[in-house]
């Protein structure tokens, strides 16, 4: 489902009922929050929450085990990520660029399947020792 640049302001409740979705693009919608109901979308393989105003993402995202292809969280206001993201061990691409991260969250380093990580444009001054866990 592609809802890119629709000026939503908030995600309509009916989106969370679309449990068959494998792709969900909510980029560039001035979103300030995402409901924990996103965890109901168990078949998602790709999720794009980029270019919004999110200060946090719900723990429920870590429960979407089918999330294997892409997770875009870039260009938001994130200063941290939920530890539950470490459960996304099959995720191949993560973009957390252009946020307010001062340290690379440990959960990122525990994503064993990551092939590509983009984290530029944050406030990172050093990398955590746990970066060695990433492949």
Strand-helix topology:
Elements: H1 13-16, E1 23-25, E2 46-48, E3 70-72, E4 93-95, H2 106-109, E5 116-118
Parallel strand pairs: 1-2, 2-3, 3-4, 4-5
Shape: globular
- The largest beta-sheet arranges its strands as 1-2-3-4-5
Largest sheet: 5 strands, parallel
| Share of β-strand residues | 5-15%
What's the architecture, going by CATH? Alpha-Beta Horseshoe
CATH superfamily: Ribonuclease Inhibitor
Could you explain the architecture of this structure?
With 135 residues, the chain is largely without helices or strands. The chain has one domain (13-133): Leucine-rich repeat, LRR (right-handed beta-alpha superhelix) (Alpha-Beta Horseshoe), CATH 3.80.10.10. It contains 2 helices and 5 strands. The chain has a 5-stranded parallel sheet, with no helix packed on it. Strand 4, helix 2 (106-109) and strand 5 (116-118) form a beta-alpha-beta unit. It is globular. The termini are far apart.
List key phrases describing it.
single chain; 135 residues; little secondary structure; Leucine-rich repeat, LRR (right-handed beta-alpha superhelix); five-stranded parallel beta sheet; 2 helices
